[in-house]
């Protein structure tokens, strides 16, 4: 367990310490799906040369022989993320002409411009979604807005370098990261965080 934790810590640190020059600074979009065929939609988008991200977590599933298997499954079935690597008009054309019913998340109901997720925010969200990390909770946007907490930077431990809000739930502290469409909370100790 200690070896696993230290390798996870090294992996996160390596990812977070990537030079800004090497990191792609293009924003991302959240895509809301109105179909249960999430994998098919992801394949369609990949065929159209989009970089796609689907948050996943390990769940225990019992097979027909009553054996428990540890399987990687999507956290939500009606949401995925694509990197903005072309103009909004071209993205809109691909999304609307698709045989799959989907829409890009917009800023508000009144403001129909696509809601962009900054690259650094999406990068941290992807790091926090790592299926190897335990003690995390996924939340809807509405649930995340109900949580009160100070903005912090994690200064120590395997999550060093991540930013978010420090929130308390069930007498434990979590680092909360929100993006359009969903949010994630990772268990963290309060002393390793510094207010921003």
Automatic annotation (TrEMBL):
Protein origin, superkingdom: Bacteria
One biological process term in Gene Ontology: transcription antitermination
Keywords per UniProt: Transcription, Transcription antitermination, Transcription regulation
KOW domain sequence ranges: 145-172
SMART domains per record: KOW
UniProt key word Transcription regulation: yes
Gene3D superfamilies: NusG, N-terminal domain
Keyword Nucleotide-binding appears in the UniProt entry: no
Designated name of the protein: Transcription termination/antitermination factor NusG
């Amino acid at each position: 367990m200690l070896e696993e934790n230290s390798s996870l810590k090294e992996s996160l640190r390596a990812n977070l310490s990537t030079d800004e020059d090497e990191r792609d600074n293009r924003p991302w979009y959240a895509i809301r799906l109105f179909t249960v065929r999430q994998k098919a939609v992801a394949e369609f988008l990949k065929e159209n040369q989009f970089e796609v991200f689907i948050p996943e977590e390990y769940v225990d599933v019992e097979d027909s022989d009553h054996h428990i298997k540890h399987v990687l499954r999507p956290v939500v079935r009606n949401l995925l993320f694509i990197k903005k690597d072309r103009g909004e008009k071209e993205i809109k054309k691909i999304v609307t002409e698709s045989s799959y019913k989907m829409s890009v998340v917009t800023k508000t109901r009144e403001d129909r411009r696509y809601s962009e997720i900054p690259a650094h925010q999406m990068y941290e969200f992807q790091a926090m979604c790592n299926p190897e990390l335990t003690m995390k909770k996924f939340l809807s946007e509405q649930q995340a807005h109900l949580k009160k907490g100070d903005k912090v930077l994690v200064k120590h431990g395997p999550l060093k370098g991540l930013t978010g809000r420090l929130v308390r739930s069930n007498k434990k502290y979590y680092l909360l990261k929100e993006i359009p469409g969903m949010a994630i909370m990772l268990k963290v100790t309060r002393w390793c965080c510094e207010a921003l």
